[in-house]
Recover the amino acids of this structure.
């Protein structure tokens, strides 16, 4: 029996749709919990090319939700273990596995010849970078985030509004799986929705999932959907994230973390200014100000204050994403 017989028998797919999937080129950012569900579903459906970025290694505490891996994979780069498992599932699919964190300077190469992007990193700094890049290139972007027993998934860019249209500013506080915990089935549900949205976009099914957001609450058992097709993009462009290769000798680099939190900063000669001191700090008028913290959230808040004071040359750096 043909591998794809059960989906090609659907009139909206057929042999023509299967050929579209075979020709598709997808970027997946993250091989963790979301990626562990997204990737096998894309490979199972016959997506021909997947470029995968993740800089982590498999750890024991990953296994309860990252079902692509097993005990034998512990200590191995996630992308290597993922590539092996995916090729075992479908050797006809090409997996371009890159064992590195996707950061700003790598985006042009990562997005080269890509048809669709899946953000499975569950990292705000990466999400904003991907959205800005995809909006500029009119590439569809499928984002998801999950914490505890709640999450959301949405289709952005590619003709729909970008992520900043719904979330113009980074959150002021945010937990993550390491600090707040998460249930494996909740992660798998959101990952499966990402895969379904991605396949629907590649097959050009209607109505389009671009401009659609789905909230999943597995505490109160609510699934709510809304459309944001007409959400306006922010009038003021978002402050960009950069990474180490994008620093210049003329930048004024401000480290917002204390020496206790970050004994070594991202570069030599940084200024150490705590977030509560930003209001009284007088920045140089002739330099770009690069604000550094762990996740980017404190940097974004400090940048907003400086922007309101009339300093437009700003950039953010999330040290945990470098």
């Amino acid at each position: 029996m043909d591998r794809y017989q059960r989906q090609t028998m659907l009139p909206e797919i057929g042999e023509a749709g299967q050929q579209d999937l075979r020709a598709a080129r997808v970027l997946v950012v993250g091989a963790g919990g979301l990626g562990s569900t997204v990737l096998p579903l894309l490979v199972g459906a016959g997506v021909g090319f997947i470029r995968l970025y993740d800089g982590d290694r498999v750890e024991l505490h990953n296994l309860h939700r990252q079902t692509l891996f097993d005990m034998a994979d512990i200590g191995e780069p996630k992308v290597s273990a993922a590539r092996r498992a995916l090729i075992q599932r479908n050797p006809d699919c090409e997996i371009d596995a890159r064992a590195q964190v996707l950061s700003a300077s790598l985006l042009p190469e990562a997005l080269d010849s890509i048809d669709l992007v899946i953000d499975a990193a569950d990292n705000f700094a990466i999400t904003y970078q991907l959205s800005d890049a995809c909006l500029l290139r009119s590439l569809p972007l499928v984002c998801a985030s999950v914490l505890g027993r709640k999450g959301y998934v949405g289709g952005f860019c590619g003709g729909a509004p970008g992520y900043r249209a719904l979330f113009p500013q980074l959150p002021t506080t945010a937990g993550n799986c390491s600090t707040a915990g998460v249930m494996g089935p909740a992660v798998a549900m959101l990952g499966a929705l990402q895969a379904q949205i991605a396949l629907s976009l590649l097959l050009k099914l209607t109505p389009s999932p671009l401009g659609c957001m789905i909230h999943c609450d597995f505490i109160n058992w609510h699934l709510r959907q809304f459309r944001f097709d007409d959400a306006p993009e922010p009038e003021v462009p978002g402050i960009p994230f950069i990474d180490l290769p994008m620093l210049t000798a003329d930048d004024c680099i401000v480290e917002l973390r204390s020496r206790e939190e970050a004994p070594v900063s991202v570069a030599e000669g940084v200024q150490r200014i705590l977030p509560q001191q930003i209001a009284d700090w007088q920045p140089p008028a002739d330099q770009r100000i690069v604000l550094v913290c762990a996740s980017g959230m404190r940097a974004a808040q400090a940048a907003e204050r400086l922007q309101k004071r009339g300093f437009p040359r700003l950039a953010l750096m999330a040290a945990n994403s470098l």
Remarks:
- Residues 184-202 form the longest helix (19 residues).
- The mean pLDDT is 94.
- The first strand starts at residue 25 and ends at 29.
